[in-house]
Structure formats: C-alpha cells, structure tokens
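Lecture notes, part 5. Sequence design as translation. It can be helpful to think of inverse folding as translation between two languages: the language of shapes and the language of residues. The source text, in structure tokens, appears below.
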C-alpha cells in the first residue's frame, strides 16, 4: 500500500525539518487543534509531545518530533502534503 510522504517544515523559515507518512499526519490532525480552519501548522513544544505520547502516539513519530525540537523550546511546524514531495511552491526543498 502506497503511503505518500508529507514534508514538515519550520513555518517561520520554510526550511524542511523532516518527512512523515500521510497516516502519521492524519493522526496528528485528529489530535491537534489548529488555530483557524485554514491553518496548516501547529505549535509543537515538549509539553505537546508529552501529551501526544499520553494519547497513544506511535514511538517513531514521537522520536521524530523530539528531534525536530532539539535545541528549541518550541516552534510552529507546518506541513505540506503535495504529492510531489521533491518540490514545494514552485521550487525545490530548502
């Protein structure tokens, strides 16, 4: 079964942080609340990661989110689920 990759990026800089599966994105979207209906980012910090763990988040996703936070208190993490994961907004990933 094909499970396309989704790019996670720093919403402030646009720099790619990691890639997750579309299934992992579905899980996050089911558990996190956007600030508005059109939002495609979430604020992630260690408290959010701990809460996600309590909610049953898979270990691989928790490790990935911890890695994204390394050296930071928290950050706005955007996601881009375009089918062409090698390009975004008309250009290559940064």
């Amino acid at each position: 079964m094909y499970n396309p990759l989704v790019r996670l990026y720093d919403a402030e800089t646009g720099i790619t942080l990691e890639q997750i599966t579309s299934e992992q994105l579905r899980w996050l979207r089911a558990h996190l609340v956007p600030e508005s209906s059109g939002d495609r980012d979430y604020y992630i910090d260690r408290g959010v990661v701990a809460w996600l763990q309590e909610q049953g988040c898979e270990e691989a996703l928790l490790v990935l989110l911890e890695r994204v936070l390394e050296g930071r208190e928290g950050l706005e993490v955007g996601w881009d689920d375009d089918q062409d994961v090698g390009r975004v907004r008309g250009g290559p990933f940064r």
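The translated text above is only one of many valid answers, since several sequences can fold into similar shapes. Confidence is low (pLDDT under 50) at residues 83-94.
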